[in-house]
Amino acid sequence: MKLKFILCTFCFSLAFAVNNSPLGVSSSGMPDIPTSSKKQAVILNESGIESSPSLNKGQTKIPLSPSQALKLQSQKINLVNKVVAFVNKSVITSSQVDAMVTQTLQNFKQKGVTNPNMNDIRSKVLEQLIMQQIQLDMASHAGIKTNDIEINDAINNMAKSQNITPDILKSNLAKQGITYEAFRNQLQKQIIMEKLKQREVDSRIVVNDDEVNRILNSEAYKNRVDYRLSMISITIPEQATSDMIRQKQDLANRAYNELKTGISFEKVAVKYSNAPNALAGGDLGWRSSAALPPIISDSLKNLVAGGYTNVIKLPVGFFIFKVNETKKHGTIQIVKQYRVRHILIKVNENTSDDEARQKIIDIKAKLDKNKNDLAKLNADFVKYARQYSEDTSSINGGDISWVSHNDTVPAFEQAILKTPVGVVSNPIRTPFGWHILQVLDIRNSNQTNDREKSDIRQELRETKGAMIYTQWLRDIREMAYVKINDE
């Protein structure tokens, strides 16, 4: 089948994306790069790009400058891998969409969702890829990056959370048809986008003590219920007219009516929701009724697992919430706490991973010389923490006081749990660098009030953050240049 390709689309893609586009040009059959400044006439056909003085049927003559030809020479045009969208100065291709559609279908299969609408999925996947590219562009302009150390730490933590080794994780990915390289590339993008979110969204979330205490002392908090929720979100543009708002409400009403006919929440979320979690069925995780806006918590009050609210109007759009599971709180929380101190050697542009690791090994070796003399060991630990540690706790001899479950990163917490009181741990690698630690004491503490305050603060941050994040995504989508290629 002869290639059908519109000349203007091709030239547009060259102008915006030839440097980083997955599109390419065959290295076979390529002309020599002309040394003059005149444009070289080439032919775009099924075999790639080649020089020719004449045209045959099915061929398109395209003038290329020497610099354009040079960029194209080492690449190959994949005829199936067409451009489906232009985003700022980048492109999204059909192969990217296909890969994400395949992964989405596998996720749906694992959740028991059958016969999803493929058009809805492709549309939602394309929009998600567009939003991903917009955020990656913003991160690039802001100089936000990641590195192999952060990616490896994320993979190790992911494997630990599933109680498997990184090798087994790699094997499981292969069984799902996902290459390890593709997995790392996507994880790299997610880490970069999370850093961007922390900078642009999380930094704008403010929760003060008055808010926390008001909830803690409220009747609603005493009778609070935790909900595991899913959400359908149909946002409204910032400068929406009354007609646009009415159209969005009609869309939300159609989603609600489809739910009433028995169509699964996941399928309706994929079809209608424009939230970033739409392809995950709108999953929000656990939320406390006390930290939710009253208009939402009141709508959830009488719902059982599997039930969903009416359409709820919020400042940023129209929402439908589903209750997946509920749980009530106990009255007392007894928490095991550990008194810990540590020494940290950071990994950065001045200190490599191997250098930091060797330095922490050397410090531990010095401490181990007095492991049978606890008084001397303790004195030396404080001295070396003040001398070598790059954590702010160094001024206190490395003492970070009492810590509870989830107060520290997983690798650090696991080391705390495994290390006997008084003993110096083996070196630990975390996203911050290399550590050794010493557990000084263990206690059971009634943390009900403190833990509740901490939980309320976190839930308020998550609730406020979700609204700010939704607004931010809407705003950056409206500001970006996006063109869907319908050809």
Secondary structure layout plus pairing:
Blueprint: H1 7-17, E1 40-45, E2 48-51, E3 60-64, H2 66-73, E4 83-87, E5 90-93, H3 94-111, H4 118-141, H5 148-161, H6 166-175, H7 180-200, H8 209-216, H9 219-222, E6 225-235, H10 242-260, H11 265-272, E7 283-288, H12 294-300, E8 312-314, E9 317-328, E10 334-346, H13 353-368, H14 374-388, E11 399-403, H15 410-418, E12 428-430, E13 433-446, H16 448-479, E14 482-484
Antiparallel strand pairs: 1-2, 1-3, 4-5, 4-14, 6-7, 6-9, 8-9, 10-11, 10-13, 12-13
Helix pairs in contact: 3-4, 4-7, 5-7, 8-16, 10-11
Task: Please characterize this protein's 3D structure.
The chain has 487 residues and is of the alpha+beta class. It is built from 16 helices and 14 strands. It has helices at 7-17, 66-73, 94-111, 118-141, 148-161, 166-175, 180-200, 209-216, 219-222, 242-260, 265-272, 294-300, 353-368, 374-388, 410-418, 448-479; strands at 40-45, 48-51, 60-64, 83-87, 90-93, 225-235, 283-288, 312-314, 317-328, 334-346, 399-403, 428-430, 433-446, 482-484. The strands form four sheets. Strands 7-6-9-8 form a four-stranded antiparallel beta sheet, with helices on both faces. Strand 12 (428-430) and strand 13 form a beta hairpin. Helix 4 packs across helix 7, helix 5 packs across helix 7 (180-200) and helix 10 runs antiparallel to helix 11 (265-272). The longest helix has 32 residues, at 448-479. The radius of gyration is 28 Å and the shape is globular. It starts with 6 loop residues before the first helix and ends with a strand.
